[in-house]
Amino acid sequence: MLLREANGAQFTCGFQCEEDCTSYIFSIFISPKKDRARGLYRDVWSANPHYPVKDNAILNFTADGELVLKDGDGSIVWTTNTAGKAVAGMNLTDTGNLVLFDDQKLVVWQSFDHPTNSLLHGQKLFTDQKLKSSVSLTKSSGHEDMYSLRVTDKGLFAYVESNPPQAYFSLLVNGNDTNMGRRYLRFLNGSLSFFIDFSESSDPADGVIGIPPASSAQYLKLKRNGHLKVHEWHSEVLTTITDLTENTLDECSYPLVCGRNSICATDGQCSCPRKEYFRRVDDRKPNLGCSEITPLTCNSTKDQDFITLKNIKYFNSIADMDGKRKRDSEMEEEYLDQVPGMPNRFSYQELKSATENFSKKLGEGGYGSVFEGTLGDGTKIAVKCLEGFAHVKKSFLAEVQSIGSIHHVNLVRLRGFCTWRSQRLLVYEFMSNGSLDRWIYHEVREHILEWEYRKKIILDIAKAKCLAYLHEDCRKKIVHLDTKPQNILLDNDFNAKVSDFGLSMLTDKSQTEVMTTIKGTFGYIVPEWQSSIITKKLDVYSFGIVLLEILCVRKIFDRSILEEKFWGARNIVRFSLQTH
C-alpha cells in the first residue's frame, strides 16, 4: 500500500473492498489525513473496476518494469504494459497520480493518462478518453457504469451509455478549429479549462468553467446517478463544492433516475408504466426500476403493442459523441437567426421579473397560459408560455415565422420571444380589453358591445385577416387556421387585432392549396374538409362563423340550441364559402 499526504487529505494506493470484502479492486482513493481506517475514503481511480479479484490475488511489480494484477487462478486481470521500457521505480504523487518512472526520472506510465471515474487537480481528459460512472461491488442500483463524460470539439458532454449513446448534459465552448490539435479538458484549482494539446503553456484556448478554489484536495467525479460533482474534505466531512449538472437539469433529466423500465413523471415521482405489465423491483425503493410481468420476446410481437403514457418527462438527447449532429435547440436558434426582421430576444429571468414570477394570468388555452407583465421601461406586455412537448416547437416556430417579421395595424404585434431550456415564450403587445368573446357572449344585453363597435371590429378583422393582408399582401401567403373570438384581441379603444398564429401555414403565393393535417377549433373549421387540403377558403369560412357570432351576439355552435338551427346557421356560411 502506498500513502501520500497533501493539502489536508491523504491519497492511498491499494486494494478496495466494500462490506463483505470477498471482491477487491486495485484503486487510488482519497480520505482525510490518517482516517482511512474509519471508512472515510472515496475511490478516484481504479485499475480493474469491471474485473474484481478474490482474496488470493497478487499485484506484482516485475523485474521487467511492469505492474501486473493476477487473480487467484493466475489469470492476468490488468497490466501497465510497460515491460522492457526501462522502468526504474513507482511513486504515488501528492496529487494522487500513480507514476512509473525510468532512471532519468521521466514518466513511463501514469494513472493520470487512464482516467476512470474522476479527475484530480492537474489531470487531463482528452477527446479519445472518457470518465465512466462508478461501479459498486455490493450495492447495485441496476445501472452502474451507465454514464460517461467526454470532451468533443463542441465542449463537455455527459451521456447515458445506450446504443447509440444519448447526451443528457452539455457545457459548450467557443471555437471549432480541430486542425490546430487535439482538444482536452484539464481540472485546475478553481476551474475546468479547455486547451488544445500544443498550447498548454498558454491561456485556455476555448473556455473556462469556474469552480470555487480548493481549501483542501479536490476531485471531480461522475457519480452513479449521472451527476457531475466536485468534492473536497472539510474537517473530515466530504463536502460537495458544486454540482455542474444540477444548475441546468431537473431530476427527471437524468436518464436512469428511476431505473430500468420505469418512468419519471412531471412531478418527479418514479412509477411503472402500467401495473398490469410491470411491477417495481422494490416497493420501498421506486428508483430501482420495474421488471416485466410478462417478458417481451421478438417471437410474439402480435401480442405486443405501444402504451400511451401521459404527464411524463424524457431527458433531451442534445448531441451525439462527436458533435456532427446538432441539438434541436441549436438548430432552432440558427433557424430563428435567419428569419427576416426577427423580433427581440428576451432572457427568461427578464420575463420572470416582468410578470412577477408569472403570477398575473390573463387566460389559457390548448397551447399554454398568457400572463400580464411590465418591462423595465414601463411597457405593458402579454407573455404566452407554450406548454407540452410534441407541439410546442412547431407552434412556437409557426408563430414566430408567421408574424415575427410582418407589421399590420390589425395584427397583434409580436414584441419578442424567449428560448430557455425546454421553455418557449412569446411576448406580445398588451391588449387591455382582452379577447372578443368577453364582449359578445353575454346573456345580459347591457354588457354587449354597441353595434357601431361591433361593425368596426368586423371591418378590422376583415382587413387583418381574410380579405386584404394575410392572404394577398404578405411576402408569403399566411393561412391562419384558427380564427375565433378568443383569438381576436381588443385594445383600449376597441380596435380589433388578430392573434395566435400557432396553427398557421405559410405558402408561396403561387400555391393555391397545400396538403397537411388540418387542426383547429370545432365549429370554426368547415366539417367536410376531410381531404387535408389547405386553402385560404378555410379562413373565409371561419371568418363567416365569427361574423355571425358578432351579429347574433352569441355562440353559433352552442350545444344548447336546437340542432337544426345550428346547422342552418352553418349552411349560410357554407353557401358564402362556395361562392367566394
UniProtKB/TrEMBL annotation:
Ligand binding (ATP): 384
InterPro entries cross-referenced by the UniProt entry: Bulb-type_lectin_dom, Bulb-type_lectin_dom_sf, G-type_lectin_kinases/EP1-like, Kinase-like_dom_sf, Prot_kinase_dom, Protein_kinase_ATP_BS
Residue ranges of every copy of the Bulb-type lectin domain listed in the record: 1-113
Record domain Protein kinase: where: 356-580
The protein's Enzyme Commission number: 2.7.11.1
A GO molecular function held by the record: protein serine/threonine kinase activity
Catalytic activity: L-threonyl-[protein] + ATP = O-phospho-L-threonyl-[protein] + ADP + H(+); L-seryl-[protein] + ATP = O-phospho-L-seryl-[protein] + ADP + H(+)
Keywords, sorted A to Z: ATP-binding, EGF-like domain, Glycoprotein, Kinase, Nucleotide-binding, Serine/threonine-protein kinase, Signal, Transferase
Enzyme class: transferase
SUPFAM superfamilies cross-referenced by the UniProt entry: alpha-D-mannose-specific plant lectins (SSF51110), Protein kinase-like (PK-like) (SSF56112)
A Pfam family per the record: B_lectin
SMART domains: B_lectin (SM00108)
Residues spanning the membrane: none
Protein name: non-specific serine/threonine protein kinase
The species this protein was found in: Ambrosia artemisiifolia
